[in-house]
Amino acid sequence: QVILAESGGGTVQAGGALRLACASSPRTYDYMAWFRQSTKWGREGVAALYLPLNSPTYGDSVKGRFTISQNKTEKMVYLQMNNLEPEDTATYYCAAHPYLGRWEYLDSAAYKTWGQGTRVTVSS
């Protein structure tokens, strides 16, 4: 069992950047991901990372703008968000699971451990 805690949300103007952080304790699971939820788009898979191989997967709407990364020593996973758009406004959640099939990387139903979320607001 792990506990996830997100941080780094806030308000930024369109075109700006934010970095979200997810702390996992007491250890990490092999699959960690970021999802977001908004009233407009529902829950969406943003990015996932297979930690042993540092292999990322991105949702189509964020490819080229967002980067998921890890710090193994600190048991942290980050989401660097660049060139933010108003449509990126949402509550962002960190999620983790010990094993997944490749088709499940951005499937929220496959993840059983979730953080409390951090709010990101992008103003136009």
Summarize the structure in words.
A hairpin with a 4-residue loop joins β7 and β8 (76-81). This protein starts with a strand and ends with a strand. The protein is mainly beta and 124 residues long. The protein contains no helices and 11 strands. The strands form 2 sheets. Strands 2, 4, 5, 6, 9, 10 and 11 form a 7-stranded mixed beta sheet that branches. It has strands spanning 3-7, 10-13, 18-25, 31-38, 42-50, 55-58, 66-71, 76-81, 90-97, 113-114, 118-123. The model has no long low-confidence stretch (mean pLDDT 96).
Features:
124 residues; mainly beta; seven-stranded mixed sheet
Compute the average pLDDT: 96
Structural class: mainly beta
Percent in helix: under 10%
* Dominant shape: globular
Strand content: over 45%
Helix tally? 0
Alpha-carbon distance between the termini?
40 Å
What low-confidence regions span 5 or more consecutive residues with pLDDT below 50? Answer: none
Elements, N to C (H/E): EEEEEEEEEEE
Q: Taking Cα atoms only, what radius of gyration do you get, to the nearest Å?
A: 13 Å
Strand and helix map with partners:
Blueprint: E1 3-7, E2 10-13, E3 18-25, E4 31-38, E5 42-50, E6 55-58, E7 66-71, E8 76-81, E9 90-97, E10 113-114, E11 118-123
Parallel strand pairs: 2-11
Antiparallel strand pairs: 1-3, 3-8, 4-5, 4-9, 5-6, 7-8, 9-10, 9-11
Concise account of the structure shown:
The chain is mostly beta strands.
